[in-house]
Automatic annotation (TrEMBL):
<keyword id="KW-0813">Transport</keyword>
<feature type="domain" description="ABC transmembrane type-1">
    <location>
        <begin position="136"/>
        <end position="351"/>
    </location>
</feature>
<protein>
    <submittedName>
        <fullName>Microcin C transport system permease protein</fullName>
    </submittedName>
</protein>
<feature type="transmembrane region" description="Helical">
    <location>
        <begin position="227"/>
        <end position="250"/>
    </location>
</feature>
<comment type="similarity">
    <text>Belongs to the binding-protein-dependent transport system permease family.</text>
</comment>
<feature type="transmembrane region" description="Helical">
    <location>
        <begin position="285"/>
        <end position="312"/>
    </location>
</feature>
<dbReference type="GO" id="GO:0042884">
    <property type="term" value="P:microcin transport"/>
</dbReference>
<feature type="transmembrane region" description="Helical">
    <location>
        <begin position="138"/>
        <end position="159"/>
    </location>
</feature>
<keyword id="KW-0812">Transmembrane</keyword>
<dbReference type="Pfam" id="PF00528">
    <property type="entry name" value="BPD_transp_1"/>
</dbReference>
<feature type="transmembrane region" description="Helical">
    <location>
        <begin position="9"/>
        <end position="30"/>
    </location>
</feature>
<dbReference type="GO" id="GO:0005886">
    <property type="term" value="C:plasma membrane"/>
</dbReference>
<dbReference type="InterPro" id="IPR035906">
    <property type="entry name" value="MetI-like_sf"/>
</dbReference>
<feature type="transmembrane region" description="Helical">
    <location>
        <begin position="171"/>
        <end position="197"/>
    </location>
</feature>
<keyword id="KW-0472">Membrane</keyword>
<keyword id="KW-1003">Cell membrane</keyword>
<dbReference type="GO" id="GO:0055085">
    <property type="term" value="P:transmembrane transport"/>
</dbReference>
């Protein structure tokens, strides 16, 4: 087992390198960049994104004095740079690290990332790791609670649907689940806001953030109540679609096992339905459900929370990564990508180890990676 874990951990290294390399190459050919971003803001031509120049603030303040001779010399390299002093552009390149060739920049990035040194944000003047630590609790909260809630509800419901297959209960619950799956999460979030967050009807839940003002001064029990009060609507919005996938997956998995010969044998021996389901079927049927755990968590942690974070003004990693892509804030973009990839790889390893815990017949020691 230890040899298998070691091989999987070593395999993460080339996988992460490949992800970073492909992303780095794509970025080199992407239009725009941090230098052009600053130039566009100085010239008043920047109308997109949500960038906040603080790290480049000195250049912004000195811009009027840098407009003048020599601007035509650099207009072929950066759009909108006409009239800006070439020395000013070179200082921007040095500030953002673009004075070095691409291979050298990539190798330097890999070396720094191996030490979890992601540098500073271009436009926030904050260390990227510190920035991600500030946003991480929001995304972790959404991801963990969504995954836990989905499994706690979907697995018992899926088992019940398998046992009651073809009955009225199965038909009605399937209809509700499919309708819920068809409704986009962000649209359901807007509906919840209209109904329960002071939109047009009731004002039962807060509209933004995960805690109230002065949360740190609350008693411990009131902190817990306030936290769940804030997270209720975002969780419900995200969970609607996740229930459908996990419930149907659980139902189909149990149906496949219930129809097998060993289940009929167990029933013939006089085992109760509970003993058959949870003593014989559960272990085999849950393997495929466990396989979906990493994907469910990573989806909730990364992509599934982006629109929800935006709608409910939750300042998490999803919103941070999206804004960083718009602003060409490459240290934050690559830093969040690296963390996302690392989490995904670790969760896949945990999933494989969970297989063994559920079914000891699986032998990783004899398995080749």
């Amino acid at each position: 087992m230890s040899a298998y874990i070691a091989r999987r951990l070593l395999l993460m290294i080339p996988t992460l390198l490949g992800i970073l390399f492909v992303s780095f190459v794509v970025v080199q050919f992407a239009p725009g960049g941090p230098v052009e971003r600053v130039i566009a803001q100085l010239s008043g031509a920047d109308t997109g994104g949500t960038s906040r120049i603080s790290g480049g603030g000195d250049f912004a303040q000195r811009a009027p004095g840098q407009v003048g001779a020599g601007g035509d010399a650099i207009n072929s390299k950066y759009r909108g740079a006409q009239g800006l002093d070439p020395d000013f552009i070179k200082k921007l390149e040095v500030q953002f690290g673009f004075d070095k060739p691409a291979p050298e920049r990539f190798l330097l990035m890999v070396w720094n990332f191996a030490r979890f040194d992601f540098g500073k944000s271009y436009f926030r003047d904050v260390n990227v790791l510190q920035l991600m630590k500030e946003k991480l609790p929001v995304s972790i909260s959404l991801g963990l609670w969504l995954t836990l809630l989905t499994y706690l509800i979907s697995i018992p419901l899926g088992i019940r649907k398998a046992v009651k297959d073809g009955t009225r209960f199965d038909t009605w619950t399937s209809a509700i689940i499919i309708v819920g799956y068809a409704i986009p999460g962000f649209l359901f979030a807007i509906l919840l806001i209209i109904l329960f967050a002071g939109g047009s009807f009731l004002n039962w839940f807060p509209l933004r953030g995960l805690t109230s003002d002065g949360w740190s001064q609350f008693p411990w029990y009131w902190k817990i109540i306030d936290y769940f009060w804030h997270i209720t609507l975002p969780l419900v919005s995200m969970a609607l679609g996740a229930f459908a996938t996990m419930t149907l997956l659980t139902k189909n998995s149990f149906l496949d096992e219930i129809r097998k010969q060993y289940v009929m044998t167990a029933r013939a021996k006089g085992c109760s339905e509970t003993q058959v389901l949870y003593g014989h079927v559960f272990r085999n049927a849950m393997l495929i459900v466990v396989a979906g755990f990493p994907g469910a968590f990573v989806h909730a942690f990364i992509s599934g929370s982006l629109l929800i974070e935006t709608i409910f003004s939750l300042d998490g990693l999803g919103l941070l990564g999206f804004e960083s892509v718009l602003n060409r804030d490459y240290p934050v973009v690559f830093g969040t990508l690296y963390i996302y990839a690392l989490i995904g790889l670790v969760m896949n390893l945990i999933s494989d180890l969970t297989y063994m815990w559920i079914d000891p017949r699986i032998d990783f020691a004899a398995r080749e990676v």
